Amino acid sequence: MDNSKQTKKPLSKALKTFYGVGDCAFSLMTSVENYFFPFFLTNLAQFDLGLAALIQTITSGVDAAISWIYGAIIDGSKPMKWGRYRSWLIALPWIVPILYALQFVKFGNNALNAVTIIIGFLASHMIWNIPYVANVSLITLAAQTPEDRAQLTATRGAWANMSRVLFPYVGIPMASFFAGIIGETNQYAATAFVLGCIMAVMYYVHFKMFDGYEEVGVDTNAKSKKADKMSGGDMVKSLFQNPPLLILLIADVSKYLFNFLLGGIAVYYFTYVAQNPALLPTYIFIANILGVIGSYVSKNFSKVLSTRTAAIVFFVITAAVLIAAKLLWASVSVYVVIILLSIGQFSYGVNYSLIPALYADCVIYSEWKTGKKASGWIMGLQNLPLKVSILLRGLIISAVLASANFTPDIDPAQASDALKNAITNGFMLIPAIFSLVSAVLLVIGFKITREKVVEYQEEINSRTV
Q: How far apart are the C-alpha atoms of 440 and 319, rounded to whole Å?
């Protein structure tokens, strides 16, 4: 099929309202890892810091190293029964729950246990990444205008961030429930399994909503099939002849790193710095409500400022509030810190929705320049900064804890100033620095403006007339 000749079916009310429920379930599932994987390794599995760091480095490193392949698999393979992209939403998600649960299983032999965790981590991530990429790639097929793209990315972002609101009241109580049944050590394994099942069901909902937006069936015309299928050379061209995409891939790391560091270190912050772990659900709720709002209103900022300019502004805002929190945490109420971090989550919510729209702009730029529409390949490259940030999260969290000689048996009431400073550096200062770097990179290197996108699309359309 020729993606440039897709049916002009308008966005349905279901897509405008509910596209993203699968992302909500996906993010709800991965929140178990984001919030509790480092804590599980150190405090429940009780691995020493060296082994915990090794596990996180191996899993995140391999995951990051292969993160580029998923879009290539989709764009380089023969379409299945329900289309090149949509088919993956039903083909693989059902396998994830069992594999994901293995990532949180604890048993006696530490070496064998570590291998099991690594296998569970890598296998589950490999399986879920293909439908994840296919899901976001469908935006470029269903959206016919910049307004459509802004609508879908904003709706998807709002639903995805809604998971962060729900998690304290779904994921955490679920883990506590399973702790009472099977024991505290393996509570996250059961939670991961159940949330993985919910993810598979919600991706099926997406599968149904995108019915009619992608051509299906076998094209017997060999020339058409060759034109539709991207070669390795086409993929290389779409990447290295696309300087804005290269810049965006680097800048995008800080968006994810902000999320993963604040998620992974929050439990340490409220336990050892604020010394009030009961505030963790409150922080998660307030911060993530603002994240949902930020995602939902992102289309308004995109309309007023342009997507690129709005992304730059909100990277700067993220950095500013995190630096303020770092400077003030020791002298103000913990609630002030929560407010500052929550403003940062609002900015994160805005950029969570804006950045995929910038990747979609890169898809248009690539098609204009190379003549090939590389939706799956380019949209799938969002996985690369995602996985790099996961790798960095493990390294940074391990480093900040090791720098203060952290051990799980430390009494929170006796936490040293060195430990508190280390935790706040990882929680606030480091993601602030990354956010500033991203803002600078977008200013200097991402030159695709709203006006240029319109020009590129008009020229592409003229070629297919």
A: 12
Contact at 8 Å (CB) between 359 and 304? no
Model pTM?
0.75
Residue 98, token pair as written in the block: 């069992």
Nearest alpha-carbon partner for 356 in 446, 248, 217:
248
Tokens (6 digits) for 177: 């429930």
Q: Are residues 353 and 154 in contact, defined by beta-carbon separation less than 8 angstroms?
A: yes
**b or e along 100-131 (b: 16 or more beta carbons within 10 Å of the residue's beta carbon)?**
bbbbbbbeeeeeebbebbbebbbbbbbbbbbb
Closest alpha carbon to 312 in 345, 354, 340: 354
Q: How many CB atoms lie within 10 A of CB 330?
A: 12
pLDDT at 219 over 60: no
Tell me the C-alpha distance between 204 and 331, whole Å.
Answer: 49
Burial status of residue 464 (CB atoms within 10 A of its CB: 0-12, 13-18, 19 or more):
exposed
Q: Which of these, 360, 362, 361, lies nearest to 239 by C-alpha position?
A: 362
Please answer whether residues 350 and 318 qualify as being in contact, where contact means their C-beta atoms are separated by less than 8 angstroms.
Answer: no
- For the beta carbon of residue 408, count every other beta carbon within 10 angstroms: 14
pLDDT at position 119 over 60: yes
pLDDT digit string (tens) for 161-205?
A: 888 778 878 988 999 999 889 888 889 999 999 999 999 999 999
Query: How many CB atoms lie under 10 A from the CB of residue 5?
Result: 10
The tokens for 119 are 């296998």
Q: Which residues pair with 80 in a beta bridge?
A: 83
Long-range contacts of 329-336 (CB under 8 A, 24+ apart): 329/273, 329/424, 329/428, 330/420, 334/274, 334/276, 334/279
Q: State which H helix or E strand residue 250 sits in.
A: helix 243-251
Q: What is the pLDDT of residues 271-326, one digit of tens each?
A: 888 888 888 888 888 888 898 899 889 988 988 888 899 999 999 999 999 999 99
